[in-house]
Each structure stands twice: as C-alpha cells, then as structure tokens.
Amino acid sequence: MKFTITRSTFIKTLNDVSRAITSKTTIPILTGLKMVLSDSGLVLTGSDADISIEARIDANAETNDLQIESTGSIVLPARFFNEIVKRLPEATMTVDVQDNFQTLITSGSSEFTINGLDANNYPRLPEIVNPDPLTIPADVLKQLINQTVIAVSTQESRPILTGVHLVIEAGQLIAVATDSHRLAQRTLELPAAKDAHYDVIIPGKSLTELSRTLTDDIDDVEIRFAENQVLFVAGQTSFYSRLLEGNYPDTSRLIPTTSTTRIEFDAPALLAAIQRASLLSHESSNNVVRLNLDTAAQTATIYGNSPDVGNVEEALSFNRLEGEALEISFNPDYMKDALQGFGQTAIEIAFTAPLRPFTLVPSEDHEHFIQLITPVRTF
Amino acid sequence: MKFTITRSTFIKTLNDVSRAITSKTTIPILTGLKMVLSDSGLVLTGSDADISIEARIDANAETNDLQIESTGSIVLPARFFNEIVKRLPEATMTVDVQDNFQTLITSGSSEFTINGLDANNYPRLPEIVNPDPLTIPADVLKQLINQTVIAVSTQESRPILTGVHLVIEAGQLIAVATDSHRLAQRTLELPAAKDAHYDVIIPGKSLTELSRTLTDDIDDVEIRFAENQVLFVAGQTSFYSRLLEGNYPDTSRLIPTTSTTRIEFDAPALLAAIQRASLLSHESSNNVVRLNLDTAAQTATIYGNSPDVGNVEEALSFNRLEGEALEISFNPDYMKDALQGFGQTAIEIAFTAPLRPFTLVPSEDHEHFIQLITPVRTF
User: Fold this and answer.
1) In chain A, where are the structural domains located?
2) What angle do CA A302, A307, A313 make, to 5 degrees?
3) Distance (Å) from the C-alpha of residue B246 to the closest C-alpha of chain A?
4) pLDDT tens digit string along A166-199?
5) Which residues of B touch A112 (CB under 8 A)?
6) Chain A within 8 Å of B101 (Cβ-Cβ)?
7) What is the ipTM of this complex?
8) CA proximity to A198, closest of A139, A144, A248, A148
C-alpha cells in the first residue's frame, strides 16, 4: 500500500475518525487507526467497540488529491500517527507500507518509520443492509440529540436508562430519555416514514459523539437499524453504534396532563437567574433552589442558600403567571440543562403541586418538546 | 463600606488580583479577597503568602465610575465573589457591608448576601520604601522572564535553583537560571542604574505569574527591592514576591568560551524539526534525540527513536556549518524550551565535544542572551 495525499484533506478525515479511538480500550488493536486503500479510495476506521467511525476519501474527487501507487491495508498507532501527520513539514505526505507492516511516512526531508499491525486482525464492522433508511436533516437530528441526551442517566445501576429510547411509528419519531429525576421528550413528524416501525435504545454517549460529528456542512443524515446496531451515514462518514438491550420503562404516563399554576418566561433570562441562584445552592449539601410564585401579587421569586457562604434572592421577570400560588424546590442543575435545550424561545412551566413533577414546553408548541423535572422535598 | 461601580471596570481589576489567590492555602483568610475603600479609591488585595497582588481603582478617574457612599473594609470569599460578580444581571453593582461583616451585593433585581471576614485579620503587606526604583520597559522584562524562567529547577531538592538569580551591577542586569542540566542567561544594559547594586534570587513561579500580568497596555515596570521582598509596580497594580534566601552557585565559569563546531539555523525551522523528533523520543525510556553534523558533506541530520513505535530521521536545513564533524545526543525538550525563547531569529549553536555543554545564541548578538544545554551520554 502506497499513496500520496494533501495533508490538510487527510487531517480532516483523520480527525473525524479519531473521535472513536480511545487509549483506554482493553483491545490493543483498537488503539490503532485502520487504513484500507483500494482503487476507488482510502477508507479510515476508528473504533472503541461501542462506537465505530468509518470515513472515505474518494480517489475520484479531484479536491482530495489522492495519488494511489499500490493498494493494501494497515493499522497504525492512532495517537502517534495523528501527532506525526499534524507536525509534518510539507503540504503533502506519502504513506508507504513495507515489510513486516513497517510504514514509512515521508514529507519533505522528514522520514518516519512506524511499526504497524496487520489490518486483518482488526475487528470487522457489522454489515447493515437495511434497504429502507430514514433520512433526517442533520440540524434537526443534532437538536433532538442535544435536547434529550441531557436527561440520560450517568449511573450504570440501571444501564437501560443510560440510553435514549427511540420509537418510530405511524410517521412519528419519539425520543425519550430519563434518569428517573427528570425526563426529556422530543417528537418529530416523519410523514415519509409512515410504514416504518422501530423501537430501539441508543447509548447516550454514542449520540453525544454523533452530534459532535454533525458539522454545519452536512445536510442530511441517513439512519439504518439492524439487530443490535444502528448506522448513521452523513456524507462520506459512517457512524456505527451498538444498541442497548432490554425494555425501556413506559414513560408516557409520567407526563401530567393537567396543571394548577402556569408561568411563562423567556428561557435565556430564567437560565441566567437559575445560574446565579445555583452559585449558592452548589455549596449547600442538598443543592436545591426555592421558587415562590405569588399569583395574587403577581411576583415570582427565586431563593438560593448556603449556610456557609450566604444566600441569594431574585425577583424574576416573567411574561404571564396564572393559577394557584405555589412554593416549590428543585435541583437547579436539572433546570439549567432543560433551559439550555430551549434556546432563545419563550417557555411555559406548568405545575400541579409542590411535590409533583412539573413540565417545561415551548410557548409556541406544547406538543413536540417537553421537559419534566421532579421537585425536591425540603421539609 | 458601601460603593457602586461599573461591573466591567471592577471585573478587570478583580481578575488581576485573583491571580494571587488560591484555594490551596493553609491560611484560611487568604482564600478571600480583601477590599479597602477610602475616599481616594478602592484597593483590592489577593495573596498566597508567596505572591501578593494589590490593585487600585481610583475614585477620581471618571472612567472607573466609582461612587463611594461610605468607606471601610472587608474580606469576601474570593471564588464565590468572582462568580457572583461575573453573573450579575445589570451593568452596575452595589457592594454594601452590613453588621457582622455580612455583605449585600445587588444588581438589578438580584440580591446576594455573603458572609465576609474582618479585614483587620488579613496579613499586612510589607512596606517597601526603597527610594530608588529601577524602571524597565514591560515588554523587555516580560521577554527576560520568559527566556530565563524555562531553565529554573522544578525540584525542591535544591530550593535555590527554583529561582532566577538577578544581579544588578555597573549599569548591567544579569538574569541567570539553571536546573544543572541547562542554563539560560539574559543581560540588559541599564545605564540609568549605574550606581545600583543588588543580588537577589526571585522564585521562578513568581516571575511566571508576574509575566502573565504584564499585558500590552503596560509601558514600564518599576522594581523596588527590600530585605526579603521585591515589589513590581505596573500602572495601578503592585506585585509583591518574597525572595529566596541562600547563595546562588557561581554560573559564570559554566559557559564555554571556545568551540570546535558551529552551525547556524533559523530558530522556528529547527524548533519544528525538534518537535517532530521528540514525538518518538518521548516514547522511549531516555527521551534523547541524536544530531549528526557532517561538516565535510555539509549535512545536519536529526534522529529520534522509540523501540516500540518506530523512528524518525530528518535532514535539517541550516544557514552555515563549520568546524569539526560531530555526533551529539540531547534531551529535545530542553532544546524546545530554549528555541522558543529566541522567537523568529537566526541562532548559532556552538559545540566543543560530544559530552560538553553546547550553547545557543542569537546570530546577531552573542553577548546578551545565551542558552546552554548539557548533552546526554548514550554509550
């Protein structure tokens, strides 16, 4: 295997694939980067066993400037190869696999010889031949991920809750995550997929990593499901993730359908006030802030307190407040995560009782995005 | 004590002073920020016992927009106070010390009450009344620090070597640092200080921190020495550091005066090649690169090697090579540190023998800046 390529082109693809490679793996060959060169192009693969990323550099795309001298394959130590490629002196570089998988990397007068491994020993990626992929705009998928993945559990005690539950049915995609203290649910209308039916749980970590690969130059993402894998194809990059096995709890009955107190805020203003209040709650043992809604006086006040440091009190500005007066306490970090998912919009928070979960929805659309937070008992 | 101020003005000064404050101190009150308000202005102080920084906000400077309602003093928990001030909602803020050192911080509808401490319990800064300060341009001082501090020892086994030795005599300032493997020496001509005589050792850490406070808007720095302290005054900021006690070793005889091989490089090109070679040497147990100078063939070649990963070989481009042929091995990290101090200039490296220290000087000025590196025996 021998090729010459523009270094900047190669680095871009190398960066995409390197996201999947970790030095913490227990499978030594996975600390390597796999390269397979055929007449049609160069394919790079990185994997940590949970996530695998494969990216192609097309030989026929002139901008790639890939000159193939001989085809073949190799696995090179990823961390070094990355550092070497980034520090080479010239704009192009040549990679040349020699005897015993020794690989010569040259650029200008600089010449590296690196010990490689046989690519035949690298784990194979699953073949996912589902003929009927879903297609979702990349920015919508990225938003959906960022809005739901905040609520996945980080604790391995209930592994199923570390994933996002995706149900595709009757032309709708519903994504739900909950760590049992809070829940995030996002719904997409997919009229083109009205006959599709899937029910899968994707690890939150995989989705977070996928979301990072979805840069602004990507328009659409194709999603293909197989037995225990999901494949996201975006441009020349294929992103594989394993699925979580098991039954996700039924979350539909958790979302309250009635409310006794409702308040409308601009999400960014409320977020800033919550961040201030949490400066003090973070110093106290229970990390709780208190919200007082006085519907008669039309005031909303937030309180944070730390016995050691001091306290904070802030009159919140809101757009509308109606229903019964209420005092409720909650973890401000859950509120911050939820508010960040709403961006610059106005939101409605609906309460039923001081100890019942409350919901946040965009004022303009109560149906497609909902965040639910369980309050904290403080007495 | 009560004052109102533009938040952005206050934050700038707060950031300067906060550099000296650490949560790792064993003296609890030093985790706090001291504020003293008099009719002439507000003085903020932070300290970690080794370094103290004091900065003034002048009441008479209109741009500061400092409105004083009553004078006084307080110590507030620095980390919180910082976070609070940065997150307040409005452009101005009011600080109001009440009974029992409780301090009210208000901005818009946000109201923090923070437990403060009596400023009388804060350690006093030394009074340094030396009537005859040295004045050095801030950019020259910053360069001098960055060129020498790289060579200070990081090991506490010989505490004296963790400092930079400063000798001011006969209108010259000589700064030297060495960790016994390498040495950096910078000389400044100070004709205005021809009668001054000082011989002090300033902790490297203090100088690194001082260098960070020397932003581009500062023209000159005034330096005052006292018994066991040095004070740097830059604009409205006073930077105090303790001095190291003891005798610094005589370093003048370490610098060779003759050479058998000389080579001239452009510093940035050599730095890039050394960085490439060190990618592999860092993986080997002894972290050494080898330089071969063939004066007959007029070639300079650098080699790096790691038994596990591979090796690198690079023909270096140079401006001039003369004298005897030589092969020498050295720690590439020392070379990198040294080269970074030279910036974009051409440098001359002079060697005497494979096991004797070699020197780096700017091609244009061999007298005022010299780096010395001890090679490594590899056989």
Assistant:
1) 2-121, 134-242, 255-373
2) 20
3) 42
4) 999 999 999 999 999 999 999 999 988 888 999 9
5) 276, 280, 310-312
6) no
7) 0.86
8) A248
